[in-house]
Amino acid sequence: MAGLAVNVDHVATLREARKASYPDPVSAAVLAELAGADGIVVHLREDRRHIQDRDVKIIRKVVQTKLILEMASTSEMVGVALDIKPELVTLVPEKREEITTEGGLDLVVHSNAVAETVATLQHDGIPVSIFIDPDPEQIKLAHKIDASMVEIHTGAFCDAPTARRRDRAFSRIVDAVKIAHRLRLGINAGHGLCYNTIKAFKGLSEIDEFSIGHSIISRAVFTGMEKAVKDMLALIKEL
Ligand code: PXP
After folding, report:
1. Predicted structure pTM score
2. Active site residues
3. Ligand 1 close to Cβ of residue 213 (< 6 A)
4. What's the CATH number for 3-237?
């Protein structure tokens, strides 16, 4: 069964909307773990728009499963990762003006710089996953620069406006998963996944873990964190 890593950034988004001390993503992380999450994800952005340095430090201390640090491939963030020592770093592209991470890291363009970050972190014992679009060329480059894992961007599939485009986007994901599996890369998947779109992944057993944030935190507003996480875990169990 694939794992579920819960991204708690959006709890911090709500807190930062008022610059208040609550709701605390640390509490969300603890509740997600108690509900059965296999890991906790935080994205420390350069502009600190949601997750703050303090959140990462405390979550590092309280998390019992694993901490996955999403970050840009910059020297500042490499310093944070070497200090925090998450169980996994996921490298993502970052633009200040985007609402959320828009596309995968383009390894055709950034392969040299990303390779250096991968080598630095993995040399220190921190495995690195690269968030990339479901594109065979990107997967092969991730393998070439020796990343431990890839996280396949599921956004185009989740946001597709028509059934036809959704089907095409999903077959790109399937092809990418098969190639990554043949190359013996670890495989995560995420972005935009919700309680409906997750069902499409039935039978795609090569995926190690799903990384899901917005849909779980949104449901948690009404049902509480425990039920929101358990509902998603139940769907993943059916895949
Ligand atoms: N994976 C990556 C690399 C992301 O950047 C995000 C969004 O922060 C997610 C997964 C989770 O996406 P969502 O919040 O849409 O579930």
Report:
1. 0.97
2. 43, 70, 191
3. yes
4. 3.20.20.70
